[in-house]
Amino acid sequence: MVMRTVGTRERAESVEDLSQWLENLKGCPPIGHTSVARCFHPSHGDEPPTWFYVEADGEAGVARLRCLSGGHVHELLDSAERWTFPPAWACRACSQSIAEVVYGVSERGGKADWLAVAVRCVECGDVAGVCDLVLPSLDLDLLLGAL
Ligand SMILES: [Zn+2]
Ligand SMILES: [Zn+2]
Questions:
Q1: How far does residue 130's CA lie from ligand 2's centre (Å)?
Q2: Which of 3, 11, 54, 81 is the one with CA 20 to 30 A from 91?
């Protein structure tokens, strides 16, 4: 998996920095679109939160986010059907497990063919790629709407 070969430890000051980190990733398909994960459950009103617990399997390319403030579960695409019960993500630097999450998408001509999921530790800013997956040339707008 491409993300796991990204070896250097880096930190991001903000979720915008994390998006930029994804866009600058080398050794993988070029990431032209990024999208910050937010929980749009109606109970959050006008302020969809961006803090999540993350479970992800880099080998299988599955991920699940659980929003910190409401416990709402978000499966990444068809992850539920292929679920491998990976352990919860915890920061390699400080061990806590609340993260901001950004999706990075590689597309050509409006068709998305690769997706990467990156996290930023909300405590110390450590960034990591947690999983990535090849897509069957999905319509970019549909994909962004489904994330
Ligand atoms: Zn929520
Ligand atoms: Zn940390």
A1: 14
A2: 81
